[in-house]
Amino acid sequence: MEIDATIIVLLLSFSAALIMGFAANKTNFCTMGAVSDWINMGDTGRIGAWMLAISVAIAGVVLMQYFYGISFDSTLPPYKTANFAWLRYVLGGLLFGVGMTLASGCGNKTMVNIGGGNLKSLMVLLITGATAYLLTKTELYEIIFHSWINSTAIDLSLYQIKNQSLDSIILSFFNFNDVDIIRLITGLSVAFIFLFIALKSKDLLNTKHNILGGIIIGLMVVAGWFISGGSLGQQAIEAAEWMDVVPVGVGVQSYTFINPMGEMLNYAASPFDFSLITFGVVAIFGVISGSFIASIFSKQFRFIWFYNIEDAIKHISGAVLMGTGGVLGMGCTIGQGITGVSTLSLGSLLVLGSIITGSALTIKVTSYRIMYEDSTLIDALLCSLVDMNLLTDNFRKYDKV
Fold it and tell me: Among 150, 269, 294, 314, which has the minimal tally of Cβ within 10 Å of its Cβ?
């Protein structure tokens, strides 16, 4: 029974991820593309789909918490920790946003592209995974980041705040008798805010595939939480404690893809050590498989390689930044931007905003460098910051693009 529960959790994780990959391929759900559409064309259809997915995920989590008693206080990764590492979230999100733009897609889109035959994305996955592996399985993170990142973190427990979730912050200021009701109201209110943002987009409402993509992606994140945190998941967690070889990464979790890319390489180095097969590892293969099936059915599967050395350098640089940013920010556009936000984590919201900012800034800078061939990186960056209302117009050197 112990083995069965663990295996079933992995199989269900693969199945839900397969649906996610299939849906993302068929509906063209892409968070980097969402930011690009918004910045370059003013089209908010895909960013509306992203916001819709977040709304669905939040609503699903708070309803599971209220009606099924599933706890999200201790998760993988620890979204609701009391250690509010704000600089880590901001820097990680910015780096990831820049990286996913250079690499032509976030972690999820990278796997969707692989399923469609994109060999550039396969290279991105391998390099992102290698970067994540080095930062999580060696002392590299400790050497480069730990001391100065850790020194800026805020211990919320010193202020009698249980953790960084919005409901815990609210409960720390008010003495409510029914904690569960406050959590439910808070969660549904935040879900409604994201739904309102999504539905403000006429581009979303005019395209059924964006609506469908957002709903399905959000539901699969909810499914991941239910698989790992429900009764079956709890059986797997309890069973793991009694195993001679404890499986890696057993716990309450849902879909995130950067650290699992590192775990995938870790498993590839020891393919007969089945304890290294994690929820995230099977999810990666699930998304790729779902996208592959969609590509075959739509007859859009084709092999793609780098156009030239500049294209290769851009994607490789983006992969390194995605791996670094994903580890620092403890997630990607799915892992933090939907899964993490669904727990109402303040850090996840910070990562989400930073990813969007980093990606938008990279898109703007690239546009200025293309439009004004003699422009320097600094000039393009300053103009981009002015466009985003982060600097005054005094810093502008070129006309707005």
Answer: 269
**If you search the block for the tokens 């880590």, which residue do you land on?**
88
Q: Is the dihedral of CA 161, 165, 169, 171 positive or negative?
A: negative
331 close to 351: Cβ distance less than 8 angstroms: yes
CA atoms within a 13 Å half-sphere pointing along the CA-CB vector of 283: 30
Q: Which of 350, 321, 353 is CA-nearest to residue 84?
A: 350
Question: Which amino acid type is present at position 96?
Answer: F
Q: How far is CA 342 from CA 2, 264, 268, in A?
A: 29, 25, 31
User: Using one digit for the tens of pLDDT, what is the confidence trace for 145-204?
Assistant: 999 999 999 999 999 999 999 999 999 888 777 889 999 999 999 999 999 999 999 999
CA dist 103 and 320 (Å) reads 9
Q: Which two tokens stand for residue 224?
A: 């991941």
Distance between CA 75 and CA 84 in Å, rounded?
15
Q: What is the DSSP string of 88-116?
A: HHHHHHHHHHHHHHHTTS-HHHHHHHHHT
Domain map (residue ranges) of the chain = 2-395
What average pLDDT does range 8-34 have in this prediction? 96
Phi, psi of 304 (to 5 degrees): -130, 135
| Distance between CA atoms of residues 239 and 216, nearest Å | 31
How far is residue 203's CA from residue 254's CA, in Å, rounded to a whole number? 29
pLDDT attached to residue 244: 72
